[in-house]
């Protein structure tokens, strides 16, 4: 509510204004963990699916944004057991058109949107982040890290 008054005690009528405040930032939402199907090793190269769907979303609450945002993902380091044994395999990103990106050596582009555009994707089990095993993979419980990068840039 606002109004104006002068030195003589005169006041204008009171007016109320509603203000909506945006967060002023880009926000990424993605699962903390991604689990893959338990697999019988065949001695051949295998693509391993996730145990379920994977949802990823970006909320763009930037104020007066004038540039696009960009989302990428990359594997950080090796996939290893708790005692440090390395997996003969790596994480991949499978796009909706079936294109497969190796996440070991470079970041895969997931999405680019115009300023002030929210985005979400719900990947079914054979799209998004998957596990690729080489023929020499050995049994074990492996874990690793993904680096998701949400850039306030084209």
Architecture overview:
With 154 residues, the chain is an all-beta fold. Helices cover 0% and strands 40% of the residues. The protein has no helices and 10 strands. The strands form 3 sheets. Strands 2-9-5-6 form a 4-stranded antiparallel beta sheet, with no helix packed on it. Strand 5 and strand 6 form a beta hairpin. The two termini are 40 Å apart.
Low-confidence stretches: none
Radius of gyration: 24 Å
- Global morphology: elongated
**Overall pLDDT confidence:** 90
Structural class: mainly beta
Strand-residue proportion: 35-45%
Largest sheet: 4 strands, antiparallel
Secondary structure: helix percent = under 10%
Could you tell me the number of beta strands? 10
| Spatial strand order of the main sheet | 2-9-5-6
Number of helical segments with 4 or more residues: 0
Task: Give a quick precis of the structure.
This protein is an all-beta fold and 154 residues long. It has no helices and ten strands. The chain has strands at 26-30, 46-48, 54-60, 69-80, 89-94, 100-102, 108-113, 119-123, 128-133, 143-151.
